[in-house]
Amino acid sequence: MTHFSVSQRNSKVEQFERHLIEALPEHIGQFIDGEPTVFHETHSDHMHLDIFMWEPTAQRPIWTMVTAGLSAHPMKVPAGAEYYERAELVLTLPGDWPSVSEIQRMPDSRAKRFSWPILVMKQLARMTYLYDTWLGYGHSTRARRTIHQTYPKSEFSGLLIEQVLSMPPDATTFMVEGHTVHCLGLYALYPAELQFILETPHGGAHEMMHRFENANVHEGIFPGRPAIA
């Protein structure tokens, strides 16, 4: 069952979205210098989804992207996990990654190499809404049907959803209209890493996250990093 219906666009949802757009940059801005660029959707389905992007700085030499809109629709979490029903996604990129305006000026064949992270963030954020499901710590997703198929012109074949490590713990939750919103980090996975998670019966995602921490790898997409599996 999905909730892709006009009934989901109501004054309560729209009010939450307005407050979210104010609260998110104010909160994250305590931990990242500079003003973010906001990529507003000009045409949305009944779930409106924007992305806030902070440029690299001397203190934080990476791009930081955070979705805004997923948390306006509580996820269908398991019983007893209602505290985690509202979330937004966090993804970082290397400091030398082209800006969105630069990507837009590229030929399509080259742009695909750099545009896929934003598209994947949006697809993943909408998945919970369209399929009446949820995203939480330890979940993983694959780029395509098989483990070894990758994102466009990429070496990565999946994403692990885990804690945000590039910012202090205080940055990973904030309040909107009395509700706690959790920031979930997205970790790009090589095929061998995704295979390890999927083929380890108990705790594969937990073990992979432990390895990321030990290797000082935080959430994001970093082409060329050493494989950890």
Automatic annotation (TrEMBL):
One Pfam family in the UniProt entry: SUFU
Annotated Suppressor of fused-like domain residues: 47-216
Tree of life domain: Bacteria
Xref: InterPro entries: SUFU-like_domain
Name assigned to this protein: Suppressor of fused domain protein
Organism listed in the record: Enteractinococcus helveticum
Origin organism lineage: Bacteria, Bacillati, Actinomycetota, Actinomycetes, Micrococcales
